[in-house]
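Re: weekly structure request thread

Next one in the queue (145 aa):
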Amino acid sequence: MQEIPSIVHFCRQHFEAALYRDPLPADKLIPALYVPTPMISDRPDTTQTYMRVVTLTLRIYHVDSLTAFAVADELAERIASARYQIPLVDDGEVPTGEVLRLEGSEFAVVEEGVAQLTLKWRNRYYYQRATYEKIKTLHVEEQVK
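Done, posted below.
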């Protein structure tokens, strides 16, 4: 999944902090950006595609709630001013020229010194189609009554 490293890369360009993924250690450095496993739901989309809705909830740890909230607000503002488009990056964090289009962002203080920034986007995938052998010859017999 190329989207999550791209979001992390975008956020770290605007917020210098220690980066943590699952599991979150008890002795983390402050400020910190915690990237948990996303929530993914899927559903039918069109006759040829299905959709996966990905929800990523980033947690921003800081010295107090007000500062954590301000950082989440700043990140949400940067995302909005970029038209909700996150430049995709490859494994070496080099931009690929493609973008991820987010649906929007939500942020709130969830506990003392911790703000949560929720990002959501949709991906479409084609269904696997059964393959059949093509008709090579078609014989039609016509009868008149």
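The helical segments are 3-14, 65-81. Residues 3-126 form a domain with the STM4215-like fold (CATH 3.30.2000.10).
Next request, please.
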